[in-house]
Amino acid sequence: MRCPYCFHDETSVIDSRDTDEMQITRRRRECLKCKKRFTTYERAEMVELFVIKKDGRREKFDRGKLKGGILKACEKRPIPLEKIEKLTDEIERTLLKREKTEVKSTFIGEIVSKKLYRLDPVAYVRFASVYRDFGDINQFKKEIQEMLKRRKK
Ligand SMILES: [Zn+2]
To answer: For 130-145, how does the pLDDT look when each residue is reduced to its tens digit (9 = 90+)?
Structure first.
């Protein structure tokens, strides 16, 4: 672990504690050279997870991609970045908790849809329109009408 101040690579750990989120360990470190202190968040090596795409292709699960999709759906919506980060974490955790090495992209799509549905209707519709691949405008209209009905209840 390199010191962020002087880039010396020997530091000592002065405090270590596990956070409940995502097996992340928070460590308070001190640089052995300049003696400055800093905090690191270290994530344990995680299970390899593969995503099975609609066409059967297999791709390594990419948290960045997941977050990118959510960010895109939430573009210009009044949603703070930290909420998007939290949402991404929750989804990632759900996937890793299944303890399976493969997950269908449609399954991920369903989870993201559900979360966005609760978060922001516009983001939800945007996401659903890409992920469900609405073939025609009527199908899309139907989806929105159903959503509005559900929201009124
Ligand atoms: Zn240092």
So the answer is: 777 666 667 777 777 8
